[in-house]
Amino acid sequence: MKNIKTILFTLLSFSFVSAQGQQVHKIVQQYKDALTKVQTLDCKVEQLDTFVTGHVWHYHGQLSMLKNSADSLFGFQFKASKTVGGEALYDGLSEFQIDHKKKSYELNTMPRSYITGSPGGQLVVPELMRYQDHDYTPELLENEQYYILRYQYPDLEEYDVRQREKKIFLNKGSYLPAKVIERQVTLDKKQVITRIITELELNQQAHEQAFVKNFLGTYEMTVEEPDVDVHAKLLETQVKNFELETFDGQLISTTTQSAKLRLYDFWEVWCGPCVQSMPKVQALEEKYKKEGLEVVGVLMDKNSKDSAEKLLSRKGINFQQTFGDQTLREYFKVWGIPQYVLIDQEGTIKKIYQGYDKEIEDQIQSLLAESK
């Protein structure tokens, strides 16, 4: 009898899972079918971003989208403007950052996917135009208002990013997204991006007027200055004296007389490239410490000390860590991270790198050899 009950339970469980699977595929297909009918749209978007640092951004705006099958970047064009902030327009070829108050615009003739992270572009909801998750089968949830597709993604171990998921809340009438929530956990803290779509209008001829660039005739184009080496004036100068506080409350000086070659690693816990490069920096200290290399980490956000310590422990990073501040940022011109500053045994700033580069080790070897 016990075996019969077990078999029946197994069969019922299999039937339930099978039915759930069929229902998921049915809802996904209805969502895909609904997307095929969308050519243009206009809506309001409310966005809330919660970061691992505890900061929360909350903003609203207007979004227009136009399907463009010839566009290889997104498959659509967009115009997005925040109530407070910028306006971005992507016409399938170029991106325009528009400032209506100044009656000016910046032109980007070689846009990449990162433009959806720019002011205005942050409001873009790709899930309103294209199905994004062909490689994943979602779990189906449901409440009175929505079918909810819950997608779960693999961890990104190198960045310590875990529990990655996205929920798409489909309107039961239209099968189009009414809300999209993306979550992940970094250093045991949640990062959440929520986009809420309201007043959605579809396929109206007036929507295409959003992409008519009348401003080109009356607005002034702002030309970006050519790239210059912002660190050039610092090179071959004596480093200024700063007292850096270590994680354990001690003070060390940037002009220490230890006669060691020093590599400063400027970073923050939310910076993926910073975290990815840390094992390489750790390896440099282990390899050249006996020859006179000293590595010093500079965390640019003191409030994230707890998260930083968890990260360092998990990664097995044990080179000395200190805190940076705005004065240090301005002196070393830390406009992007990770940034690495190499100071020789005499206190001269020899090299500054924006992003990790294999040349760092070559330069370390050269400076150590010169000091012998």
Topology:
Blueprint (H helix, E strand, L loop, with lengths): L1 H35 L3 E11 L5 E12 L8 E7 L4 E4 L4 E5 L4 E5 L30 E4 L3 E8 L7 E11 L5 E10 L2 E14 L17 E3 L20 E3 L5 E3 L7 E7 L4 H17 L4 E7 L5 H11 L4 E4 L2 H7 L6 E5 L5 E6 L4 H12 L2
**How many angstroms does the end-to-end distance come to?**
84 Å
Tell me the CATH superfamily of the largest domain. Lipoprotein localisation LolA/LolB/LppX
Instruction: Report the biggest beta sheet as strand number plus sense, adding barrel if it closes.
Output: 12 strands, mixed
Low-confidence stretches are 10-18
> How many β-strand stretches?
19
The gyration radius over C-alpha positions equals: 26 Å
Q: Which term fits the overall shape?
A: globular
In order across it, which strands form the biggest sheet? 7-8-9-10-11-1-2-3-4-5-6-12
SSE sequence, one letter per element:
HEEEEEEEEEEEEEEEHEHEHEEH
Mean pLDDT: 89
Structural class by secondary-structure content:
alpha+beta
How many separate domains? 2
Number of helices: 5
CATH class of the largest domain: Mainly Beta
Helix content: 10-25%
The CATH topology of the largest domain: outer membrane lipoprotein receptor (LolB), chain A
Strand content: 25-35%
